[in-house]
């Protein structure tokens, strides 16, 4: 097997793709075949972390929420208006109205940007509107999350984008889930920028830790996540 290493940069990614092309005819169970399997898994992991994906369609999102909650089509009648409308929405024959989208968002928790998206739209930047200088850079230096350097604030965006890159990319953070319940109230003293920085630091450190065993593709599926939850 060749000298295989983690894929961390675009150059690593392109080199891995080229090597995969060269190994495509390798026989299963041979050293080249084993190298091909490992490289394929590494490329899939890199793409999952760095290649933005589009939103699911509104119908896919509704059906997924129904499966999650054990809902039948009749349970959507209060939000969509009638059984006929439910049937037409789920079959794609009728588009969602603004009123329907608001009802589904408010009662089923389906993100509004998914329900109201335009066909073929992609995920917006998770960093839009960020004020880079609001991150607690001095504290991050003290905790040794980032290197000490002069004029921290003037390099705030560069520093944080590097941390985000090491964490796995800008679209990784929105996947984080925090324990809460319906009665929970936001802590007025919580600093959202400090929380983001902490999440990215945790993810960056996790990316430096090798898995104790080889990951088998498909192990983490919806059933597995439900058991974890």
Question: β content, as a range?
Answer: under 5%
Largest sheet: none
Please write the string of helix (H) and strand (E) elements: HHHHHHHHHHH
Low-confidence stretches: 180-187
How many extended strands?
Answer: 0
Into which percent range does the helicity of residues fall?
Answer: 40-55%
| N/C terminus separation | 38 Å
Given the helix and strand composition, which structural class is it? mainly alpha
What is the number of helical segments per DSSP (H or I, 4+ residues)? 11
The backbone outline, from C-alpha atoms, is flat
Instruction: Tell me, rounded to a whole number, the average pLDDT.
Output: 80
> What gyration radius follows from the Cα positions, in whole Å?
22 Å
Which features characterize this protein?
flat, 229 residues, mainly alpha, 0% strand, 11 helices, single chain
Q: What does this protein structure show overall?
A:
The protein is an all-alpha fold and 229 residues long. The protein is 50% helix and 0% strand. The chain has helices at residues 10-23, 31-50, 58-69, 77-80, 83-90, 98-108, 112-115, 137-142, 156-167, 192-207, 222-228. The radius of gyration is 22 Å and the shape is flat.
Q: What is the fold's blueprint, element by element?
A:
Elements: H1 10-23, H2 31-50, H3 58-69, H4 77-80, H5 83-90, H6 98-108, H7 112-115, H8 137-142, H9 156-167, H10 192-207, H11 222-228
